[in-house]
Each structure stands twice: as C-alpha cells, then as structure tokens.
Design goal:
Chain lengths: 475, 407
C-alpha cells in the first residue's frame, strides 16, 4: 500500500510582525507574525528547500516523479516541477507535473501520487506544495497570508503514514480567486465564503468520510484543518466534533495562511509529535474540500530528524520594514539596472552542473573541485594536477562547508543590500564563491558553518534564473 | 641578450589626459589629448608612427584610435587584458620595436565610463551563455577584493580598527600625493578621519578604500635607444625599458582550497620574473619608486608583500611608518595611484609609466597644483609599475621596470 515515507517542510527565514503591516497603513495589525520569503525566493526555490528536508537520507536517483503544487507558479509556460527536479538531481526519466489553480492542489497532488504508487506505475513520488500569495497592499487579506512549503515522499515501502481513506467534494464556490495576470487575490464578501461555504462543506465531507471508514472524531488524534484565521479554523474543527486539544495548531500566528501548502504543513506539524498507530485527519478548503484520514506506522520514528515545522519556526529573523517587503515582492518599482541577462540555452547545456550543482572529482589525484565561469560549469583540466577530462561527477548541493572569507557589499548589493559574498571550503573538499543569504552581517565570521540553498538569481527578459547560494547552518 | 627586453627599447615621448569624470570629453577627445601631448613631447607627428597598439577594455578594433587620430593605413592592434590592458599594449609595442620590425610606434590606452549611466564599472561582457545560471561567477570588484582584507585581518590577528587604519593609511598617502597633481581625478585633501568614518562600500572596505572610476587616456612613443636619444637631444633623457612581464593566473582561487586569500600569486610570479629580467636582487633597496594597482587599499597592501617590498605579514609596519610615502624609503603611488589619480581601466598602465617617465626626467612638478609641496622624488633610477586585471582569486598581472640608461 502506498503511503507517506518521509515528510519535510520549509518556512522562510524572515518573519514580519503583523504590527509592521499595521504601522505601514496607520492602524493596528493584530497579533503574531507572517513568514516572508526572501527577495530571492519563490514557489520553485521553496519547493526545493522543502524537498531537500524531505529527502534527507534518500538517494535522489530513486525518485520516479515530482508533483509540484502551487497557485503562484513563477512560470505559467515551462514546467516548474522540472526546475525543482533538476535542482534535486532527479533522473531524466522522472515524470514531472505541476498542479495548481486552486488551494486544494497540494492535497490533490498528494492523492494523485498515492494513486499512482498504488497503481504500480510509479514506486516513489515527491510531492511539494508551496505558495507565496499576496493580498492587495493595505487590503483585508494582506496580514493573513504567509509563505512556506511542504513536501512528502510517497512510496510503497517503509511507509511511515498510511492513507486510510479520503473524500473530495468539488464545489465551485468561489470565495477567493485570481484571474490570469492578477497579482493579488480577490474575494467575494467574506460572510458568503464563511457562512455558505467554509463553515458547512468541510463538516459534511468529514462526517461522510469518517462514516465511510467507521470512525468517529474520537478516533482522530489531531485534526489538521486548513483555514484563513484561527477563529474560523478552530470554529470549524469544533463543528466537526473535535475537542480543542484535538485541533492541530495551524501556525496562523507564526507563519500565516500558506495556501496550497497549508493543510500539508499542518499535518506535518502533527506528524512531528506523532507516535506509531496514531490517526490524523487532514482537511483542505478551496472551491470544494478534501478530507484525508491517515495513520502512522512504526516507521514514523525514523524520520524525526527533519527541520520540518518546529525547527524551521525557530530559525528566523524579524523583517521590521514594510518598504523592504514591498521591494522584495516587486510591488514598488526598483531602478536597479541589470548588468547582463540570462541564457536559456546555457541553462539547458549546464542543467545538471548548474541546477544540481555538480563539480568533479579528479580520478588522477582525487581532488574534488567546482568549476564556475560565466560561460560554463564544465571542468576539463584538474585544478590540482592539470590532468585532462579524467573526472567523475561530484555533487556539491548536499554538502556543508566553512567560510574562508567574505565581504558585505553595500553598493552592488542589488535588491537587498548589503550583498554578502563568501568563499566556502566544502567538507570533503572543494571550494566555491557564493552569495551568503539569511544571515545577520554581524554573525559572519571566518570559519562559520554554511549549507547550500537554492534561490533565484536574476530576473531578466521577463524570465527567472535559479542557482545555489549558501546560508548559515541553523539546526 | 635574447629573451630579455632590458635596454632594447626606449620611450621618447609621453602624454596623459586629465583623469576624472570627464563629462566634457568623449573617448576620442581623450585619445587626442594624450596622443598629441606625446607627439609634441617626442617631437614627432602622427605621420611618423609606423604601427600602433591601443588598449581599451570597452572599445572595438584598432579604429578606436585610427579614426580620432586619422592615422593613415598603418597596422594597429587592439589589446584587452582587463586592468593590465594598457601595459600589455605597451609591452607588445616594445616587442615589435625590439624585434626590429618598426622604429617608431605608439602605445595608447583609453577608456570612458561616464557615458554609461552606471556608477562603477560596466559589465563589458555580452549577456550570453551561462550568464544567469552562473551569476555566482560574476560580482562587483569591491566584494571580491574586500575578501582579501577579511582574511588578512583574521590571519594576522589585526583588530578591525587596526586593519582599517592600515588600509586607510594607504589611501591617505595616495590622496596626499595625488592632490598635488593637476591631472589627478581627485583634487581635495582627504583626512584620516574622513577615510576611517566613510560609508562602507563592501565591508570592511569603505569609500576611500576604493579607487575612482574615471575617464582618461595615456600614450607613449616607443622607439630604439638610438632614435630615442636623438629625438630627446637637448631635452630630458628617454626612459629605458628594463623588464616587461605578464603572469596569467589559472583563475582557481575560488575553487582551489590551497589559495590563502591573503596574497596574489600571479603578482609574486610576474614580479620575480621582472626582477630576474632587469637583474634586480633586492627590490626593496634597488627600486626607487613604484606605481602599483591600488584598485582597493588592501590590494596595495598585499602587493607590497607580493613584490617583496615588505616581508610577508609585515606590511602594516611599513605602511604605518610611512615607508611608502613620497618622502619614505620606497615611494609608492607618487601621482596618487588609481585611488586618487583615477582608473580608466584601459589607460591606467600607461598612466603609471607616464609618472615614472616624468619622475625619471626630474619633471614631476611641471603639473604641480600651485601652493602645494613638490612631488619630485630625489634622484630616482628605477621605477616599477604593476597592474592587476581581475580579482584576487584569478587575474592578469603585469609588472614592468623602467629606468634611466645604464642603470
């Protein structure tokens, strides 16, 4: 039987207190904070980050497919999941698909993966869900939305969480929507969505699913229920028959509503504390509702070393500047003039070297090395012994390292100065020069520990480019 | 002696435009300004030039100079080697004369950045293969040179304040020298307080740790020793070329864990080769003066060690003692260097030679700003020039040695 073999998540480093948004508009902002993707992050890069967390200890070449769910795809023509697949070093013959256009896409992708593995056509599928939705600045939704990503590895071996059953009602009740070209979410009168939709339909779905499985709310350890705010979300769980202690915290005061990723992230938070044999309910919402009942196995104890939700929540810095946030999201125009563009042909040529960050190991002298030049990432001559084309591939994206030297550039710092650049010597050999992100300039020191993170690098000619950067190791 | 340039060619005339943000001048104007000063200095006309080498980091073909100077169908080669561009144009011109192919040639370097609309250097490369993907390979120059300071301070145990003072003292000295020169980009006095409290450009480098980005051109008329002596009869003596060396790094400092990020190996290699070519055994004692590539203050500091002017790890004392000041044991940047005189990439190498030329001829003060102390170094015999094109992790290095006849 197919089930969840591993989970992982990603919450961006920056958190903006709701009071900062309130202050920007001259009013109160409410309690708590929102997770804010960095200026160089999007749904693709956050999917990679969650994928890395999920695949800890898994050989990426064993994965057969990636299903990426997002309502905020960087590309609408070009497969975003392919970029993630390359960054995670999956095989060429993986089956990649993007899911989107609705907040239930994360659960839909997960169930599609379960179905594919159960059908026997795929053995192992990575599902990622990530979103970076925006409310109109100063509008009613701005202080409810957060950024984040979830990932599940679905497989038929070493299953840690079994899927006992699911039920979907597809109801085209459009409480929220975006049309092509809309930058910000739109909504109908909020009482319509709440009273005619959110407070009714999920109750119906959960009641019918539990009935189908001969279960009652008492059989569920935690109900993981999607929702835009804590009051509505806890109210819904109560209407479904759950006691307050059965309702999994939805991180609405720490992260905000992460769209397609939200129900999956709530489930992951529950799984972090789960023991074998516990039963969970996951409920999504958005033009209909999915409910899924899942049950942990003994294997759940083996995947507790993920950063997932709890550890990511603790890895943070405050973004206390609304202007920066507006600039990061490209809402206010910038006049930074790009020097140089991007090249689709070079990206294609260098897809393995660049997107999965491969260097080489010299078969003559054993030296591990990167090669990164404007036009190529392909080494031909060994940096140490000058032997020609006598290498085996060596992946750097999964390595940690130590900073050899660094600088903080305020002038050429781009969208979020200062730009910190650092030379890093990798554990196991090799050296590279990278942008150092998610760091406090004050904490940077020669010898500090860093790890790789996949980020946007440039936007030019209305196309995005991605590459690896480094960030401090924070456990 | 075959294999050495020593005393085989001489410089009979030189010119240099005023450097700076030349909103008033096009690159063509700058070329004419520098070339005609050189022609008049040597007592020749453009019709006497048999071949030319033009260095520019931003221009096109040899027509970069044939058009503004209307040179008539002579061979012209355009040279580009980043910040070593002008020196490499000079080097190739010298070799052509030494080979006996030409008698009188022109080497000229020029660049103009102030029409780009960008502060700092423009990205001269064409957006193309790998540009976006390998963004990590690019990056602003201050960010890469600042890393030298981070490592140097850390390794030698200099506190931030000590390190900042050391590199600040480098820039202070250059501004003291350069502000006396009428053609220098920066003309005002700069105090240590201003240097130490300036805004940070690329930590730990502040504004005054960074050289100016300037417009300018510089030119040299190169000929045989005999013709040079003839041309300069009754005038100051010609300048003789003693050594011309280039070392090109394999650009592996960002990939090879053996690179210490505290020195520039190519400078060591080119310097040692130049000393050998010129027959110099103790550069600290034998070199009278130097113009080195101080794109950033820390670059000059480590270059003093790489050129063996200071012992490894000991440059701080020499800098703070004033050893490289105009009245010190080995004056460095007597015209202000890149820091104060300015840095039009393709012109800088020949601008450095222009300063050596004027100092060797005892004419350093002919462009002295009124009311300021003399810039003339007492009795110089040998001068060294050095360019670094690229970054600390990989670069093109030029080291040249020039001097009076028979030294």
């Amino acid at each position: 039987m197919a089930g969840i073999k591993s989970y992982g998540a990603y919450i961006p480093y920056y958190r903006m207190p709701r009071s900062v948004i309130g202050a920007a508009w001259g009013r109160g902002g409410g309690r708590g904070e929102l997770a804010i993707a960095g200026y160089d992050e999007d749904s693709v890069s956050m999917s990679v980050s969650a994928g890395i967390d999920c695949l800890k200890g898994t050989d990426p070449h064993t994965v057969d497919a990636i299903y990426l769910a997002t309502t905020t795809p960087p590309y609408i023509e070009r497969l975003n999941s392919n970029i993630v697949s390359n960054a995670l070093d999956f095989r060429r013959d993986v089956r990649n698909a993007d899911f989107g256009n609705g907040l239930r896409a994360g659960v839909s992708a997960l169930m599609a993966a379960v179905d594919a593995v159960n059908a026997g056509s795929l053995k192992s599928v990575l599902v990622t869900a990530s979103d970076l939705r925006m409310g109109v600045p100063g509008g009613e939704h701005e202080n409810t939305l957060g950024d984040g990503a979830a990932a599940f590895l679905v497989a038929d071996d070493a299953v840690a969480v079994e899927v006992e059953g699911s039920l979907t009602y597809s109801d085209d009740l459009a409480d929220y929507w975006r049309m092509t070209g809309d930058e910000f979410i739109r909504s109908w009168e909020d009482r319509f969505g709440r009273d005619a939709g959110y407070s009714q339909i999920p109750v119906e779905v959960v009641k019918n699913l539990l009935g189908k499985l001969n279960l009652t709310p008492k059989d569920i350890s935690k109900a993981c229920v999607a929702g835009a705010n804590t009051r509505a979300q806890t109210g819904l769980a109560r209407a479904m028959g759950f006691a307050p202690e059965q309702v999994q915290d939805a991180q609405l005061d720490d992260v905000g509503n992460t769209g397609v990723a939200q129900p999956l992230m709530i489930l992951i938070a529950a799984l972090e504390d789960a023991k074998p044999g516990e039963r969970f309910l996951m409920v999504s919402w958005g033009t209909g509702c999915d409910a899924v009942v899942l049950k942990t196995t003994d294997q759940i104890e083996k995947i507790k070393d993920r950063r997932a939700i709890k550890r990511h929540l603790a890895i943070k810095a405050t973004l206390d500047n609304y202007g920066k946030y507006m600039r990061w999201r490209d809402v206010v125009p910038t006049q930074i003039r790009a020097r140089g563009g991007i090249s689709m042909s070079a990206e294609w040529r260098e897809r393995k070297l660049g997107l999965a960050l491969y260097g080489v190991k010299c078969l003559n002298c054993g030296t591990v090395q990167l090669y990164m030049r404007g036009s190529s990432m392909r080494a031909h001559i060994c940096v140490e012994c000058q032997a020609k084309d006598n290498f085996e591939p060596y992946r750097f994206s999964d390595k940690t390292g130590k900073v050899v030297t660094f600088s903080h550039d305020f002038l050429g710092g781009g969208i979020n100065p200062p730009m910190t650049r650092a030379v890093v010597d990798f554990e196991g050999g090799g050296r590279g020069l990278f942008d150092l992100v998610d760091r406090d300039p004050e904490e940077c020191k020669v010898g500090m520990d860093v790890e790789m993170t996949f980020r946007m690098t440039r936007t030019a000619e209305n196309a995005k480019s991605y590459f690896w950067k480094i960030k401090p190791v924070r456990e | 002696m075959a294999g050495s340039i020593k005393d085989r060619v001489a410089v009979a005339g030189m010119g240099c435009s005023r450097f700076g943000e030349r909103w008033d001048a096009s690159v063509d104007d700058l070329i004419v300004e520098a070339a005609y000063e050189a022609f008049e200095d040597a007592g020749v006309g453009p019709e006497d030039i048999q071949a030319a080498w033009v260095g520019t980091a931003t221009g096109g073909t040899g027509m970069t100079i044939s058009e503004p100077l209307r040179l008539q169908y002579i061979p012209i080669t355009r040279v580009e080697n980043a910040c070593a561009t002008a020196s490499d144009a000079f080097r190739n011109a010298c070799y052509a004369v030494a080979a006996g192919i030409y008698d009188i040639v022109l080497a000229i370097g020029c660049d103009k950045y102030k029409d780009s609309g960008l502060s700092g250097l423009t990205d001269g490369s064409i957006p193309g293969p790998g540009h976006g993907l390998m963004a990590a390979a690019a990056g602003p120059p201050p960010a890469s040179f600042a890393m030298l300071a981070t490592t140097y301070f850390d390794h030698y145990g200099l506190s931030y304040e000590e390190g900042k003072h050391m590199i600040g003292r480098v820039s202070w000295k250059s501004h003291e020298n350069g502000r006396r020169h009428k053609k220098a980009h920066f003309q005002r006095e700069v105090t240590m307080d201003a240097i130490l409290n300036a805004p940070i450009v690329s930590w730990p480098l502040g504004l005054y740790d960074c050289c100016g980005v300037s417009d300018g051109a510089a030119a040299a008329i190169i000929t045989t020793p005999e013709i040079a002596k003839n041309m300069r009869k009754g005038k100051e003596p010609p300048m003789f070329v003693k050594a011309l060396q280039i070392a090109m790094a394999p650009n592996d400092g960002n990939f090879n864990t053996k690179f210490d990020y505290m020195h520039v190996e190519a400078t060591v290699r080119a310097g040692d080769a130049a000393y050998k070519e010129a027959g110099i055994t103790n550069p600290r004692e034998q070199i009278s003066m130097a113009e080195v590539h101080d794109c950033f203050s820390i670059t000059e500091a480590v270059t003093m060690e790489d050129l063996r002017f200071s012992e490894r790890g000991k440059v701080q004392k020499d800098i703070e003692d004033g050893f490289f000041d105009l009245d010190g044991g080995l004056p460095v940047q007597p015209d202000g260097g890149l820091k104060c005189f300015g840095h039009p990439i393709g012109a800088s190498g020949i601008r450095m030679l222009y300063e050596m030329y004027n100092q060797l001829q005892g004419r350093a003060d002919r462009m002295l700003n009124p009311g300021l102390p003399s810039r003339q170094i007492k009795d110089p015999k040998l001068g060294l020039t050095h360019n670094l094109g690229g970054g600390p992790a990989g670069c093109a290095i030029f080291v040249g040695i020039v001097g009076l006849e028979g030294v």
